Amino acid sequence: MTDATAPGASIEPSFDDVIAAIAFNADGLVPAIAQAEGSGEILMMAWMNREAVLETLRTGRVCYWSRSRKGLWRKGETSGQMQRLKDFRVDCDGDTLLVIVEQDGVACHTGRRSCFYRALRDGKLAIIQDVETDPSVLYGHTHK
Fold first, then answer.
1. Which HAMAP family does the protein's record reference (predicted)?
2. pTM
């Protein structure tokens, strides 16, 4: 048995201060914006609950709460397009998270690098990013 207080002993942080700083909504969720390390590109927005935040912090693999599946969603578990946590930030009000990630492949289920691939151009929404990976390759079926 090892003494956890011995020099060099591994002690898992509790992350109590981090959780206390987050203002989860009435459903126990907080929006999390994923930003690409280096380029600063905004890749996606998803929701996290307390469990997803803790798993992300403990493992370094980004985990979200899927409202449609009503369960934890480990980014890339179906598609292989994993996100590794590089930095974790909480905004001034504690009601939005910024996760800076190293993204494997594409972030969007449509096969694009970012979920923000539509932009206002001449009064209309225009697609500004091409599909990089066919969604049927990622998921075995087509997504809109």
1. HisI
2. 0.85
